[in-house]
Amino acid sequence: MSLATRIKSWFASQQPEQQKGEEENMSVKLAIVYYSQTGTNYQMAKWAEEAATEAGAEVKLLRVEELAPAAVIEGQPAWKQHLEDTKDVPVAKPEDLEWADAIIFSSPTRFGNVASQIKQFMDTTGGLWAQGKLANKVVSAMSSAANPHGGQEQTITAIYTTMMHWGAIIAAPGYTDASLFAAGGNPYGTSVTIDQEGKMVEDVQAAVKHQAKRTVQVGGFVKTGFGQ
Length: 228
Ligand SMILES: Cc1cc2nc3c(=O)[nH]c(=O)nc-3n(C[C@H](O)[C@H](O)[C@H](O)COP(=O)(O)O)c2cc1C
What we know:
Elements: H1 3-26, E1 29-34, H2 40-54, E2 58-63, H3 70-74, H4 77-85, H5 94-99, E3 102-110, E4 113-114, H6 116-122, H7 126-130, E5 138-145, H8 152-166, E6 169-170, E7 191-193, H9 205-224
Parallel strand pairs: 1-2, 1-3, 3-5, 5-6, 5-7
Antiparallel strand pairs: 3-4
Helix pairs in contact: 2-9
């Protein structure tokens, strides 16, 4: 076989791999970072994962580290059970944010603010922030609370405040889908109320899925250069 033929045949054999590589590079990498004590934000994160995967994203579902003392958790069966049920979910690291093109945060409302576990994780991102590595990440946030007016939007906008310091691009849902007009639909980011048994009062699955797909879509715009 001549050298030219050998080179041609090598190129032919490489072509599918190259194309595959290009396609992989174009898919949006999405990190879904949540904290959950009793499963609500975990469920929302799972719905987001499902929708984003369906939208073609490469997804990492990550929980932030639990910081509450073991003795406190021990005294609360639902909390202990949830921690046990999700022990195999990987714990979020700052490197996961560096990896991601887009990030969805989900946090329970705590006194009208984010859970301290989420805040602690955010406070470990100073190194990446200082290097400008969090700029242009496409971000979106979700929350839950026990009271319909218990501060869901405050929690979501508190997350966005940190994201603004990063120079991230906030992909809020706005009113971009019919699910936003249903109970739990929230232009800031999906939020849900839970009852005394810890069950979701509103059906927010469609709103979560729309938010996740929109985050992936905007992530794609930024990654590929929208309009070029
Ligand atoms: C310390 C603490 C503070 C809370 N603060 C609020 C609050 O300000 N407003 C509210 O409606 N619910 C509040 N809740 C209820 C939580 O928001 C609710 O348990 C949570 O959204 C459930 O999410 P999870 O199942 O993912 O843990 C609080 C709960 C705890 C433990």
